Amino acid sequence: MPSPAHSTRVIAFVNVAHALDHYVLLIYPTAVIAMAGDLRLDYGPLIALATGAFVAFGLFALPMGWLAVRFGRRNLLAVFFFGCSASLAGLSFSATPTAIAVWLFVLGAFTAIYHPIGASILVSHASSLGRALGWNGVFGNVGTAFAAGGTALLASAFGWRAAFLVPAAVCLAVGLAYVALAPADDQRDERRAPAPASGGFRLSLPVLLTLFGAALVAGGMTFNITSIALPKAVDERLGVAVPLVVTGWLVTGVFLFGALTQLVVGRLVDRFPLPTIFVGLSALQPLGLGIAAATEGAPMLAGLALTIAAIYGQVVVNDAMVARYTPPHLRTKAYSVRYFLGFTVSGFAATLIGATHSSGGFGMTFAIAAAFGAVIFGVAIAFFLAARPAAPAPAE
């Protein structure tokens, strides 16, 4: 078993990696606002270039569980840091839509490493599952939040190329520190570890997999549509003209609000059945997206804040489900499948945003996202009904 000091150090790097993963993947949706003027292209065609990045983000998650067995989780996480650094540097020097699309795809492939590998490392070192997942979620949410504000600040002060180049340097520095300070973890012990408790529930495996898969696909769509569209939606539908920096920091505030939810949900995971928490969170997604679709200004911001809080809270629940219902030695592969399902189809969210924004504005975009949210709510109800308390063990 790893020592507490070792586990603390590893978890710290995993949390920082989560922040960087979401930050670097969401630089482009804010930077594109400045890039459109510089490249003399419309927002719709430019945002659609991100499709490759978000498809790769899900697609390349699938083989990570198998690669981890061959090359080790620590080595793959190091590749994540260095690969993101190189991809961002490439984006900073891009001058054509083709080059931007290629480097975005490469960036998506490297960012795909984090979730299956990072989540697996995290749960193997966590002493309290819900608390660890909650704090890890906060780091990811902070990365998402500051992607908008940080990118807007760098792009306004130094140009959009700096918005990619500065994070490239940060990823390189953190990667070097990780290689120097985080020793390799031994996955062999996980084969002998007992499966974690299921939280007092017995589930039919086919039902669980079917429901969970549907929730992951629909949840990935609400996640990506909301995250990608948020900067431009605030810029366009706030109701008052504000500088890019203000837009960026308003978006940051919305994502930081979501971080509070992840801490709360992390606590709930350690105390209540997962299906019950799932139902409560899933009800908030179509509600918030419906408000955002029908309103502008402050009510729209409130609806999007509610949506982001629910989405990020559900991320904690989804990861907890994998941790509790999967044997330890299969977790990395299970997380690979989980993120493959969640992010591959949803990678087309950027294309969907471009098409719906061009034809019906963000009202149509958020209405479609609300429909995906309604699917998640239906799945959560079915999941709750399919779960049944385990029969008590007979007295000896």
TrEMBL record:
SUPFAM superfamilies per record? MFS general substrate transporter (SSF103473)
Q: Which domain of life is it from?
A: Bacteria
Membrane among the record's keywords?
A: yes
Q: Where in the cell is it found?
A: Cell membrane
Q: Which UniProt keywords apply?
A: Cell membrane, Membrane, Transmembrane, Transmembrane helix, Transport
> Which membrane topology describes this protein?
Multi-pass membrane protein
Q: Which residues cross the membrane?
A: 12-34, 46-69, 76-94, 100-123, 135-158, 164-184, 205-226, 238-260, 272-294, 300-317, 337-356, 362-387
Its cellular-component GO annotations read: plasma membrane
Q: The Major facilitator superfamily (MFS) profile domain covers which part of the protein?
A: 7-390
A GO molecular function term, named singly, is: transmembrane transporter activity
Q: Which InterPro entries match?
A: MFS, MFS_dom, MFS_trans_sf, MFS_Transporters
Q: Does the keyword Coiled coil apply?
A: no
Database matches in PANTHER family: MULTIDRUG RESISTANCE PROTEIN MDTH (PTHR23517:SF2), RESISTANCE PROTEIN MDTM, PUTATIVE-RELATED-RELATED (PTHR23517)
Know the name of this protein?
A: MFS transporter
Q: Which organism is it from?
A: Methylopila turkensis
Highest classification ranks of the organism = Bacteria, Pseudomonadati, Pseudomonadota, Alphaproteobacteria, Hyphomicrobiales
